[in-house]
């Protein structure tokens, strides 16, 4: 087919409403860096990377792996990445402290993605017995916020325990040492601790947790990126939507890819998937929980109360233009 015939074919397909997928010129691909967090709950961005859904958007992405959303977020703040996968807890704390990195899309939410794992030999048979114990968690992260909400279910607060600042990648080894009685961190870390220390570590119950805690997993970018490169942000959102579709249509394949990435067993990954609500969106529940996170950060002494109303402040930190351009029905934020 000559060029004229090719153009006619494209025109005919367009008139019929049939989309034509254009493969970007690799030489023109925009190179970016994405700071990614670790764990099964980050399945959607993992699939973007493993299936290279960036390429269809004309993007060539390099990933930097971190053990927590806060560390991934810090990489963006340091200018090492254009995007970071993190949680609403991190944005809540950062926003209250005047950091203007914005959420461009949420892709997963869950309540049971965090757990409290406790030593069986320290007199901790119930959550109420955490009082007076030393609990490890990475400070300033979703684990820190989760622990405060978890304790509230049992009539306790952070003042009733001693916090031990331990990186997310080290909580499992920390609970095997004499200085830590329990840790608050991800579901997969809890599973690993139970397996690594049989009979010595148990997961404490989380009955009713969904009433006080929901964690939102989000893609973020600096304000300058969304202002100066809106098409790049649209491409990132499209890639997330493609990964979501793969996750929903091929759950077994998705679990295998994520298990390989996280070095977890397929069974543990599938169990983790059972706790998640996957869906690219921006809604009022996200904004509500950002406000709760901000109030917590202020009350915990991690931030000063800003002059601006918290809801107004966080609304400005949710960038809706990209998702509205790609899938407007996914934006229900008022």
How would you characterize this protein structure?
With 334 residues, this protein is an alpha/beta fold. The chain folds into two domains: 30-110 and 215-330, Periplasmic binding protein-like II (D-Maltodextrin-Binding Protein, domain 2); 114-211, D-Maltodextrin-Binding Protein, domain 2, CATH 3.40.190. It is 42% helix and 19% strand. The chain is built from 14 helices and eleven strands. It has a six-stranded mixed β-sheet with strand order 2-1-3-10-4-11, with helices on both faces. A five-stranded mixed β-sheet has the order 7-6-8-5-9. Helix 2 links the parallel strand 1 and strand 2. The longest helix is centred in the last third of the chain and has 20 residues, at 230-249. The radius of gyration is 21 Å and the shape is globular. It starts with a helix and ends in an 8-residue tail after the last helix. Residues 1-26 have low confidence and may be disordered. InterPro entries: SsuA/THI5. Residues 46-254 form the SsuA/THI5-like domain. This is Aliphatic sulfonates-binding protein.
């Amino acid at each position: 087919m000559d060029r004229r015939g090719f153009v006619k074919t494209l025109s005919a397909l367009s008139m019929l409403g049939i989309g034509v997928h254009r493969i970007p010129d690799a030489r023109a691909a925009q190179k970016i860096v994405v700071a990614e967090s670790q764990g099964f709950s980050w399945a959607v961005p993992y699939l973007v990377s493993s299936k290279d859904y960036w390429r269809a958007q004309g993007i060539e992405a390099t990933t930097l792996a971190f053990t927590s959303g806060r560390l991934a977020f810090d990489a963006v703040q340091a200018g090492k990445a254009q995007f970071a996968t993190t949680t609403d807890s991190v944005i809540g704390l950062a926003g209250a402290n005047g950091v203007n990195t914005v959420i461009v899309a949420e892709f997963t939410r869950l309540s049971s993605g965090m757990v409290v794992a406790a030593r069986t030999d320290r007199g901790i048979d119930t959550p109420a017995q955490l009082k007076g114990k030393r609990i490890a968690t990475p400070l300033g992260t979703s684990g820190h916020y989760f622990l405060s909400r978890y304790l509230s279910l049992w009539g306790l607060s952070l003042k009733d325990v001693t916090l031990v600042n331990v990186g997310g990648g080290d909580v499992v080894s920390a609970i095997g040492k004499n200085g830590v009685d329990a840790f608050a961190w991800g579901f997969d870390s809890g599973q690993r601790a139970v397996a690594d220390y049989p009979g010595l570590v148990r997961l404490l119950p989380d009955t009713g947790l969904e009433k006080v805690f929901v964690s939102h997993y989000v893609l973020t970018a600096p304000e300058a990126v969304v202002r100066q490169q809106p098409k790049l942000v649209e491409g990132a959102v499209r890639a997330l939507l493609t990964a979501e579709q793969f996750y929903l249509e091929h759950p077994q394949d998705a679990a295998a890819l994520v298990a390989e990435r996280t070095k977890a067993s397929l069974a543990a990954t599938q169990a983790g998937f059972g706790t998640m609500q996957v869906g690219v969106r921006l809604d009022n529940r996200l904004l509500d929980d950002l406000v709760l996170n901000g109030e917590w950060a202020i009350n915990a002494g991690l931030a000063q109360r800003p002059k601006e109303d918290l809801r107004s402040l966080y609304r400005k930190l949710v960038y809706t233009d990209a998702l509205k351009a790609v899938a407007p029905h996914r934006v229900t934020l008022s």
